[in-house]
Specification:
alpha/beta; Rossmann fold; six-stranded mixed β-sheet; 18 helices; 31% helix; 24% strand; globular
Length: 521
């Protein structure tokens, strides 16, 4: 492949890049994670870094933040070579990364997090008053509206991200990497975050923006670099790059996300009820009722704070509701016997035939230190075990079938899930949910943080579950996740506000999610 030209300069032609990767290569044994990648981020811009899971984004970030050293090539800041890996203070003065999973210490205050390991000292003791004063001055300087004495564990995701940005700026860094910053934010929170990014850009801060949401690239970024198969495919000005061309650069194929469209299939008739949700109420939702029939897909849409996730978690036993009932029919016919699930009991939900892909694969979906085989068969332990022991050959066989069915890219069933890309990790979570042959499949943000092709594979498995006669519940804020739904229930402030049948218009659904009436005069 010849040299790939740069088209991303957003400043003067002779301006010095804030950061450069020059022919950066990183190998792990026989695997090349990054191969001769060039990246140039100019002062004051938001530069998007996109690509499928496994394309090399995380490895490149580790090189740009000094967590690892390139095998070949060079990292430069402001035209000068990067500091030695061991000089962490010098790296903090140049670059910081705000990760999708917050690195603030929940038990400490905002001020303590801002100055952790460098608190002001007076007479050999921490000067708490000076630390709070300096924290307030720092937050005011960067117009970050967070109390310095607030406990970080009590802050929302948006506020925690701003604290991390303020901490980076306090070290002197003016180049900040944002890794999937909107993954856990709703519409209003995303708009506020983008406003803060734009304000910080005007004050001289430069961002590298990593996201699987391509719409966000066009909203907030001026330039974009695409990685595919460990190599840089292109760098371009965002306004000059059509979306179809961006997707093609990421995937090597033309077109967008290919997923089932419920409006194109025949209406469901004569199917029996598989799941009943009756007057379910909890901390952030109230009086939620709906049924799902066999072979039907029902979506739960709404903002992050709407209660959609909590309702789905209550169905799967991951959350204990205050009142109401969840009932799973165990036979055919609307008069068939059913099981009323005890509240907040995951084993009981599994035994009744409820499989679940939880919202956070790292905290609830996987044991990262274990293999694909261990993770994919975790829900089958009581069925497979004899005297508390499951033969490894049985686990490996079942995991091998899951690898083939879901297209998991791995060396084999014994490969640790920690070494898989995000998309392949999510496929393992899906395999675990399907392993029990569930009657009801609950999917919570099933494609969050995965690339286009992994998204297609996961949505195809949901469609296959529907074709096999399972009842499927999809709780998601992603429009593509909801296209395969026969019905979409929009939740607003904890209640079902509206129901859409297949064939809805994107604009109308989004307006309902945001609480806007398009028909209002």
């Amino acid at each position: 492949m010849g040299a790939v030209p740069f088209f991303s300069e957003t400043a003067e032609p002779l301006a010095t890049p804030v950061v450069e990767a020059l022919g950066a290569t990183k190998r792990f044994g026989s695997t090349t994670a990054v191969a001769g990648v060039d990246l140039r981020v100019m002062p004051g811009e938001s530069h998007a870094l996109v690509g499928r899971n496994g394309a090399g984004k995380s490895t490149l970030v580790s090189l740009l933040t000094g967590l690892s050293k390139p095998c070949q090539g060079e990292i430069r800041f402001g035209g000068e070579s990067a500091p030695p890996i061991a000089d962490r203070d010098a790296w903090r003065e140049r670059v910081a990364c705000v990760y999708q999973h917050s690195t603030v210490i929940a038990e400490l205050s905002v001020a303590e997090n801002l100055f952790v390991n460098r608190q002001p000292v007076r007479r050999g003791m921490i000067d708490w008053r000076a630390m709070r004063r300096e924290a307030r001055a720092l937050l005011d300087h960067w117009h970050i509206d967070v109390r310095e004495d607030a406990r970080c564990g009590d802050l929302g995701v948006e506020a925690r991200q701003l604290v991390e940005i303020a901490r980076a700026l306090s070290h002197g860094a003016r180049f900040i990497i944002l890794d999937e910053p909107t993954a856990q934010l709703d519409g209003d929170e995303i708009k506020r975050l983008f406003r803060r990014i734009e304000e910080l850009q005007r004050e001289g801060v430069t961002f590298l923006f990593i996201s699987h949401h391509l719409q966000e690239v066009y909203e907030i970024c001026q330039a974009v670099t695409v990685l595919r198969d460990a190599r840089r495919i292109l760098t371009a000005r965002v306004e000059r790059l059509p979306r179809e061309a961006l997707i093609e650069a990421m995937t090597g194929e033309a077109g967008g996300v290919v997923c089932a469209d419920a409006s194109r299939r025949a209406p469901l008739t004569g199917a029996t009820i598989a799941l009943e949700v009756q007057a379910l109420s909890g901390a952030d939702f109230a009086d939620v009722s709906f049924n799902v029939r066999r072979g039907e897909v029902v979506g739960l849409a709404g903002a992050t704070s709407s209660g959609r996730t909590s309702v789905a978690e209550a169905i799967a036993g991951l959350r204990r509701p205050h009142a109401g009932a969840v009932r799973v029919r165990t036979g055919d016919g609307d008069g068939a016997a059913g099981i009323t699930l005890p509240h907040g009991d995951v084993p009981a939900a599994l035994d009744a035939g409820v499989g679940c892909v939880p919202k956070d694969r790292h905290r609830e979906g996987l044991v990262l230190s274990q293999s694909i085989a261990e993770n994919a068969t975790m829900t089958l332990m009581r069925k497979l075990s004899r005297f508390g022991f499951v033969p490894p050959s049985v686990k490996a066989r079942l995991a091998g079938e899951a690898i083939d069915t879901l297209g998991i890219v791995a060396q084999g069933p014994l490969a640790p899930v920690s070494g898989l890309s995000g998309g392949n990790q999510q496929k393992v979570v899906m395999a675990r949910a399907l392993a029990t042959n569930p009657r009801v499949l609950v999917l919570i943000d099933p494609t969050a943080g995965v690339d286009v092709k992994s998204k297609e594979a996961l949505l195809a498995m949901a469609e296959r579950a529907r074709e096999e006669g399972r009842a499927v519940v999809v709780a998601s804020g992603e429009i593509d996740d909801l296209r395969g739904c026969d019905r979409v229930l929009v939740m607003f402030r904890g209640r079902i506000a509206r129901e859409f049948t297949a064939g809805w218009a994107d604009q109308e659904l989004i307006a309902s999610i945001e609480g806007v009436d398009l028909n209002e005069a």
